Amino acid sequence: MSKTAAVTSNDPNNPNTSITLSCFVKEFITVKPSARINIVGYEGDQLSQKLTITATEGQEFEIAEVKTDLTDKLSYKVETVQKGKEYTLEVTSLSKAEGFVRGQIEMITTSQKKPSIILPVFVKIQSEVGVTPASLYFGKIDTAGGPVNPESFTKSVVIKLARGKELDIKKVSGSNKWIKTETKTDEKGVQYTVVITLDKNKMPKGKFDEKIEIKTNKKKEPLIVSIKGEVM
Q: Using CA atoms, how far apart are residues 162 and 176, in angstroms rounded to an integer?
């Protein structure tokens, strides 16, 4: 850390000068690789992170207690590498399902200068397969005002596998008969495009809020795409 100050004097040979003060702030306890727990991965995997907690020279301590507000979401294990000097904390997500949680872990120590170490926790478990975009808006469709551009009735979404090459589209279905779908292969086992077309001759007038269900071999629950708009 450094600070610089400008000094003005009546010295004609050196009327302006600067003074810089530098210092090194030494931590009593270090946490590596970071004083935050970030666990990110894919559903179905066993996800964990290990931290190393180290005392600086002459600041030895012991970990007396570990507690968290995520007792139903995480498990943790503290191991002594070198008593008083170095410990490891391994944190494991109890859930393997898609979702995210936030919270913290607090370590109570015997250090007088650092009696408590608070570690923010963020866990994000992603699906291996996703659909983009997850919602489509067709806007206002005026079917009574003359010819309508056919492209205004068609939009598409992309289904992509984040890792591996085993993705298979089992079934694509719309929530109404006037929703037609076509599945195209972009890269077999990895990425597909679903083209969604609305049948203007069968659509009722008014606002609509429908959905497309896309069933794959990678998820028990189907991917959902919402479809909204209004027929004038």
A: 30
Q: Residue 146's pLDDT is what?
A: 65
Partners of 125 in the beta sheet? 41, 99
Per-residue pLDDT tens digits for 49-82? 999 999 988 889 999 999 999 999 999 999 999 9
pLDDT higher at 225 or 205: 225
Q: Which CATH class is domain 29-126?
A: mainly beta
Mean pLDDT of 28-39: 94
Show the tokens assigned to 52. 């190393």
Q: Who has greater pLDDT, 52 or 23?
A: 52
Options 1.10.240.10, 3.40.630.10, 2.40.160.60, 2.60.40.10; CATH of 129-231: 2.60.40.10
The DSSP secondary structure of 158-217, one letter per residue, reads EEEESSSS---EEEEEESSTTEEEEEEEEETTTEEEEEEEE-TTTPPSEEEEEEEEEEES
77: number of CA atoms within 13 Å, CB side?
8
Place of tokens 């859930």: 95
Q: What is the identity of the amino acid at 22?
A: S
Q: What is the mean pLDDT of residues 80-96?
A: 96
Report the C-alpha dihedral over residues 25, 29, 34, 39, rounded to 10 degrees.
-160
